[in-house]
Amino acid sequence: MTTIDYRELFIDGAWQRPATSDLIEVRSPTSEATIGSVPAASTADIDRAVGAARRAFDDPKGWATWHPKQRAEVLERFATELENRAGETARRVTIQNGMPIWLAEQFEGGFPPILLRYFATMMLDAPEIDERAGMLGGTALVTRQPIGVVAAVVPWNVPQAISFLKLAPALAAGCTVVIKPAEETVLDAFLMAEASAAAGLPAGVLNVVPGGREIGAYLVEHPAIDKVSFTGSTAAGRTIAETCGRLLRPVTLELGGKSAAILLDDVDLDASMESLFAVTLLNNGQICWLNTRVLAPQSRYGEVVDAITALASSLKVGDPLEPTTQIGPLVSARQRERVEGYIAKGKSEGARLTTGGKRPAGTDTGWFVEPTVFADLDNNATIAREEIFGPVLTVIPFSDENDALRIANDSEYGLGGSVWSADVSRAAAVAARVKSGTVGVNHYTNDPVAPFGGIKSSGMGRELGPEGLHAFQHLHTVYLPPAG
Ligand code: NAD
């Protein structure tokens, strides 16, 4: 098989030789073979990338000063260039992280151009100046200005969509960006760099520097960065928040989760199974907002356990490039070890394994774990409290609605969640009491129009919606004197 190899980094609008010969090797989670390599950015490369982004931002005639209409034209071309590469983007994500190809086509190939157009249009529709008659006689002219040079640090699980939750609003607002992809998913990031160059994004506006956590930490702390936007683990988020606190640097953090699906006693289980799959086990269980705690009414507990068990055991596990595969491998051997550690913990703490728990038979290579369900546990079990980031669900009983909410809200995290009922308004009333940034009723999707993000250990700040644009702007007020 031919491998995908790059030997240059995309910095300052050009492919440049890296400062060192260090490489990041990418391995297939399915075959475990090497599938590509890219240069590992060093601190010297970060300096160059941030320097380029700084110059591009500070240029008195540069990107930040353009009319939103001019930026929208370039972002439209960027969206088109991404569309031209959508199939290859999806394929690259799938061969790197094991995301089922049909999902990669939607999330990774499909979503980024939608986000670029959405935020570019939002800038066109936004009033340029908000003129406010003052209470003290004068007039206040309030504008939103681009916040500056953005450091974007992203994870491997949904690499392109998460990148564009940051890039689309940042670029539309007039910011310049240095993005650091995770080491596991670099090949899609280099394709994105190619698309940006083909679209004619001005030099320095977007720079791509792959590396590990040390390089990420160096970028976050770099003196020429004005704003940090991070998605990843809660542990890394805390470290980044400390750095940004010390530097008084604005930061947005999208972190981990342990969300709950509350199944009310009138839920239509048969009609809900397809959507329940999408909220519990999508992307092999590697999405931060997944509802990995399924809360079931005591009166229907056995029935729900059976239905979730049947769902998990019916899923097709295998090569994620196969269009009918529902569960692919986990991203890495390390991630599989982590997930298997939690499965062992679930058993040792006395939860009942109803399906899964092993590596699937017939997969000689690949970091696969069977979709796994645990029942007969309460919310204090380790597997009900900690984020596993794999295809492992817990089904926990509750006595009534208040008890369901008590359990759902008894979590260190607060990112997603869902409520399921034959009565949408009843479910919506329960959803309003779930303590998290977002909750779905009888389904869950991150609609671009509405803010997405978490509370508690799930992070701070929001992406998507106008709020997601405002995260890359600061407010500027001019006080005009009273007339006359
Ligand atoms: P991770 O935090 O280890 O890595 C994420 C990214 O941050 C990578 O690019 C990594 O190189 C970088 N990084 C790590 N430590 C850093 C530091 N101290 N300073 C700067 N950069 C650093 O997470 P992971 O294991 O790659 O991803 C899985 C985690 O991400 C899960 O916990 C998951 O819940 C979370 N996640 C959250 C969201 C969300 O939107 N809330 C989305 C996806 C993933």
Automatic annotation (TrEMBL):
GO terms for molecular function: oxidoreductase activity, acting on the aldehyde or oxo group of donors, NAD or NADP as acceptor. InterPro entries: Ald_DH/histidinol_DH, Ald_DH_C, Ald_DH_CS_GLU, Ald_DH_N, Aldehyde_DH_dom. Residues 15-478 form the Aldehyde dehydrogenase domain. Keywords: Oxidoreductase. Pfam families: Aldedh. Transmembrane segments: none annotated. The keyword Transport does not apply. Belongs to the aldehyde dehydrogenase family. This is Acyl-CoA reductase-like NAD-dependent aldehyde dehydrogenase. The lineage of its organism: Bacteria, Bacillati, Actinomycetota, Actinomycetes, Mycobacteriales.
